[in-house]
UniProtKB/TrEMBL annotation:
<protein>
    <submittedName>
        <fullName>Uncharacterized protein</fullName>
    </submittedName>
</protein>
<feature type="region of interest" description="Disordered">
    <location>
        <begin position="17"/>
        <end position="116"/>
    </location>
</feature>
<feature type="compositionally biased region" description="Basic and acidic residues">
    <location>
        <begin position="69"/>
        <end position="81"/>
    </location>
</feature>
<feature type="compositionally biased region" description="Basic and acidic residues">
    <location>
        <begin position="146"/>
        <end position="157"/>
    </location>
</feature>
<feature type="compositionally biased region" description="Basic and acidic residues">
    <location>
        <begin position="88"/>
        <end position="116"/>
    </location>
</feature>
<feature type="region of interest" description="Disordered">
    <location>
        <begin position="136"/>
        <end position="157"/>
    </location>
</feature>
């Protein structure tokens, strides 16, 4: 029986289940032996008194669950005074004396284990030790369950719940994870403040709040990466299409379109970053850029003179053609495209003067 009690004690103090049968070759255990001895003693005593019957019934249920023990104790309270009950729990009767947990029994059960011996010193009787082990086993089997989260509309219940859970009294009491906060920008701060208030009203733990914000940060990062890649692809395609359409005048036309967009009152270059419902930026749509370049020509003249770089390129090409005309007459006469190009340059300059 000693080794069984020791094992039960260790199981109750740690995590193993409580009433585990010992592998002792078929013995029924110390509880069954005690009950059998009590019943035999009751038969030998022939006609026991009412008090002795109560004592025998109490002995037969000493290792039952907490509810049965409480019900039996309530019945005893109706028949005996508080002093008699305390005396029974200690050692007033012969049977009670047999259930005392003596130092010798503690030493035998502990068998040199100081930790077990220290735990045994907390109990004075075998029933008190058994009840403690049963309670410990009950708690282990149920686990450490958090209180149920109340309805957020019940302010008093929610306040009590926050106190039991160790939650902050206000939303600004949350200490959010720095590694997650660093992933959010200034544009996210209003949303974060609003969500933190929402989470506090509903009794969210700091861990739950961190998890939700981390999820949001990951989704934002993924969406931003996708958007950047889409913009890059659209920009590359628009540039390729316009270079093919405009040829050597690509840079001049692009400058003219930019100049026109910048001249729009109240918006300016921000027009380029405006997005359509499909996510495309206006500044990456070839049709929009071509239209702006055309409006720019009407507003500011030939795109060749849209900026200093374009004008410098114009003047350089003009000088090159004039040199061929004046110094290499054979090349000039054999290539009609040179004459045509120089004629167009003169025409632009005349148009600009007007």
């Amino acid at each position: 029986m000693d080794h069984i009690l020791k094992r039960l004690l260790l199981n109750g103090a740690h995590e193993a289940p409580f009433f585990m049968p010992a592998d002792d070759g078929g013995n029924s255990g110390g509880d069954a032996e005690t009950n059998a001895q009590d019943k035999k003693q009751a038969t030998d005593d022939q006609s026991p008194s009412d008090g002795e019957k109560d004592q025998q019934n109490d002995d037969a249920t000493l290792l039952s669950d907490d509810q049965s023990q409480d019900d039996k104790q309530k019945t005893d309270d109706a028949d005996k005074s508080e002093g008699e009950e305390d005396q029974k729990d200690d050692k007033s009767s012969d049977d009670g004396e047999k259930l005392l947990l003596t130092d010798e029994m503690r030493d035998q059960i502990a068998n040199g284990d100081k930790k077990v011996r220290s735990l045994l010193s907390r109990y004075t009787t075998l029933p008190s030790m058994a009840r403690a082990l049963a309670e410990a086993n009950r708690k282990i089997s149920q686990g450490n369950k958090a209180p149920e989260r109340p309805d957020p509309a019940d302010k008093e219940a929610m306040q009590k719940y926050r106190k039991e859970m160790g939650l902050p009294e206000s939303a600004d009491g949350y200490k959010l994870n720095d590694s997650v906060l660093k992933r959010l920008g200034d544009d996210d701060k209003p949303m974060l403040a609003d969500f933190t208030e929402f989470a506090h009203e509903r009794g969210a733990t700091p861990q739950e709040l961190d998890l939700a914000i981390e999820w949001y940060a990951e989704r934002q990062e993924a969406a931003m990466a996708q958007e950047i890649e889409a913009d890059r692809t659209a920009k590359t395609k628009a540039e390729d299409d316009l270079r093919a359409e405009w040829g050597p005048e690509y840079r001049a036309n692009l400058s003219m379109a930019s100049r026109m967009v910048e001249s729009i009152p109240g918006v300016g270059p921000d027009w380029n970053n405006l997005k359509l419902e499909d996510g495309r930026k206006l500044g990456n749509i070839p049709e929009f850029i071509t239209h702006m370049a055309e409006l720019g020509r009407r507003e500011f003249g030939d795109p060749v003179f849209a900026d200093s770089d374009s004008e410098a390129a114009h003047n350089s090409r003009k000088a090159e053609l004039e040199k061929i005309r004046d110094s290499d007459i054979d090349k000039w006469d054999s290539d009609s495209s040179l004459k045509k190009e120089l004629t167009e340059i003169y025409a632009r300059e005349e148009k600009r003067k007007k």
